[in-house]
Amino acid sequence: MFPTTIAGSLPKPSWLAEPDKLWPQWRVAGADLAAAKLDATLLAVKLQEDAGVDVVTDGEQSRQHFVHGFLEFVDGIDFANKVEMGIRNDRYKAMVPTVTGPVKLKGRVHGAEARHARAHTKRKLKITMPGPMTIIDTIADRHYGDRVTMALAFADLLNAEARALEADGVDVIQFDEPAFNVYMKEVTTWGVEALHRAIDGVGAKTAVHICYGYGIKANIDWKKTLGSEWRQYEQTFPLLAKSAIDQVSLECANSHVPLELVELLRGKDVLVGAIDVATDRVEAPEDVAATLRAALQYVSADRLYPCTNCGMVPLTREVARAKLCALGAGAAIVRAELSG
């Protein structure tokens, strides 16, 4: 009951990349970098196991950024001449690569870290990838000329990697779609369709992570404009409840999301964000337990997965470790209460 998991990313060791940054520079290169990424992956798995996380991830240790870590393995993209572009509906600016031709996978994307993690843990393993809508919102286009066409092209690439990850022994494949809380009409018209294309034929459990973003200033400032209730989920959850996606990961802790919206996901596994990644304050286990008890009013106990609100990569390693321990301890409190 209450298998714990995380949204995906964890902070990188300072010997691997610049600490406390969302877009860090690598500290090593070449063969040394490839080996260091796998070493960091193993440390991330061990950290989660020690904290009591049941469904572990690779911590996204091999990626400089959750979107660009996938794009680096795609032909048809120019990384040498990045351009500045507004993303998440111009919430903030970023330097992004450009699609200059038909996109095609160069080979495997996350195979090395997935197989390495699988070989070193007996727990269930989750690997995350950016969703189609979020990819096209984080890249410039000089080829397709149409957002939907480009999104579906990337969905096909994601599907190929998802099938390969399943063959690697990955138990859960998650697609990160923060853009689903921004482009509400597009979610309805083609966003879920693109997700379905990405999971076609995948036998592993599939998940979609929808949050209000990392704990960076641009996202924190945007949240202040959303009012006393954040109701974006109200538009997307009914669509996802009818979809083929198995699990939905959402933000709950220290947010203005009305928890009754979770009831719109009846029939799905719900990854309840009980850890706030937008603050260095470490939750007490009882804080986590309180969030889970509140969510239990709207999601059955056998469907609830205690989770983090979003990725933890911008935090310090010590804060992330303490928060993971609080997540595991808080889940244990509620687990004991329900088991008698």
Helix-strand blueprint:
Blueprint: H1 30-51, E1 55-57, H2 68-71, E2 74-87, E3 92-105, H3 111-119, E4 124-130, H4 132-136, E5 140-141, H5 147-167, E6 172-176, H6 184-199, E7 205-210, H7 217-223, H8 233-241, E8 247-251, E9 269-273, H9 285-295, E10 304-307, H10 317-339
Tell me what the structure shows:
The relative contact order is 0.15. This protein has a single domain, classed as TIM Barrel (Alpha-Beta Barrel). Strand 9 (269-273), helix 9 and strand 10 (304-307) form a beta-alpha-beta unit. It is built from 10 helices and 10 strands. The protein is globular and about 60 Å long. The protein is an alpha/beta fold and 340 residues long. It has a 7-stranded parallel β-sheet with strand order 1-4-6-7-8-9-10. A 3-stranded mixed β-sheet has the order 2-3-5, with helices on one face. The model has no long low-confidence stretch (mean pLDDT 95).
Q: Any idea what the radius of gyration is?
A: 19 Å
Helix fraction, binned, reads 25-40%
**Helix-and-strand structural type:** alpha/beta
Q: What global shape is seen?
A: globular
Instruction: Please identify the top-level CATH class.
Output: Alpha Beta
Q: Major β-sheet, in short? A: 7 strands, parallel
The CATH topology turns out to be TIM Barrel
How far apart, in Å, are the first and last alpha carbons?
13 Å
Q: Could you tell me the mean pLDDT?
A: 95
Low-confidence stretches: none
List the strand order in the largest sheet: 1-4-6-7-8-9-10
